[in-house]
Amino acid sequence: xxxxxxxxxxLVLIVLLTWGKLNAFIAFLVVSVLAALLxxxxxxxxxxxxxxxIGDTVGGLLSIIVLGAMLGKLVxxxxxxxQIANSLMQVFGARYMQWALLTAGFIIGIPLFYGVGFVLMxxxxxxxxxxxxxPAVYIGLPTLAALSVTHGFLPPHPSPTALVTxxxxxxxxTLLYGLLVAIPALLxxxxxxxRYLKHIPAAPSPLFQQQEVNETSLPGKSNSFMTALLPVxxxxxxxxxxxxxxxxxxEVKRWILFAxxxxxxxxxxxxxxxxxxxxxxxxxVKKIMGIYADAIKDIAMILMIIAGAGALxxxxxDSGVSLQIAEAMQSWHIPVLVLGWLTxxxxxxxxxxxxxxxxxxxxxxxxxxxxxxVNPNLMVLSVGAGSLMFSHVNDxxxxxxxxxxxxxxxNTLLSWSVMETIVGTAGLLGVLILExxx
Length: 438
Fold this sequence. Notes:
By secondary structure, the chain is mainly α. It has one domain. Helices cover 77% and strands 0% of the residues. It has helices at residues 2-18, 24-38, 46-59, 62-77, 80-92, 97-109, 114-132, 136-153, 158-166, 171-194, 221-244, 250-260, 262-278, 285-318, 321-330, 336-351, 354-372, 376-386, 396-405, 409-435. It is globular, with a radius of gyration of 22 Å. The chain starts with a helix and ends with a helix.
């Protein structure tokens, strides 16, 4: 019976989000209250359960996601992202322009949120398409695949960051494993798959045909690369130092753990960027703070969605149904990593949002992961891969790609939707392979 109640609540959530067009945060709260009542939580205990779920989930994520948004916004607004793309196009040359844009998308996609990276990279893609007379989908899809991969697999993006917290994983190790899984998935879904898309007709908007950019106003190349990738470098270095000094003095280990905490890493990276991409580029401090304020507006709803999902997760935990679901799932004889991926994939297909799919699946899978002693870092990547599966007409990314490239629904399904499915499937295979070595 509890399992059927949870299933009913998931269906109600899907209906509210898709047919009802309800705000995701409100939908999560409504379903959380409904689930609490149906699962027998006393009415006077429900508000406390919701508050605990929201507080526990958002508390550890708020500073990381907000600081990451600020850094990404500054990288875009200062011109550093444009400088990275231009530099890579010069290095790779006209013959390997697809690889230049793909690499730029991957590097830029690490600090930038998906929507910002999409809008930023599309004009660059179209300028190359017009200049070199290349097929738009063939050139553009690998770049957007890179943005999708970073969005689903790599912290400090909201979904993997939230999953790290829910599964009690290590941010640095998740990033390291995520890079190992993301790169092969990107190569398959990007350049390899794009070879079969040269024939797809696309008519990108002439709005992007002429791109006049004052190159002298852009930050330097080294400055742009180092600042954008500084959080990645710091997380990887401190993670390696933690293992290297595992037998060292307690005092040294404490300082390494402090320096490697994701909040401290993001704060340090943002402070450095404030000077290297802001003050030293003659951008007034007031304008920099305005950029940071705009960044918070960009991710406010993402934070609210994560908070709402946290409330539902806590209701399932407080009612005891999470453990019952975990025990029931154990009898299915499906590996937990695959089960997490499958759960996220089903929710993604129904709801459309990768973030909602990943976080909702995590609330259902976390107890089973603990019982089965599955590596939490790999669990983050498995659920992240499932949350990227089969983007179609209920996903905003699907429509952005269709409209920017002026494609038919059929050709968008054949290109964008297949690409996302390849990313999700290759991600799961990469996780299962990696499981044998860690």
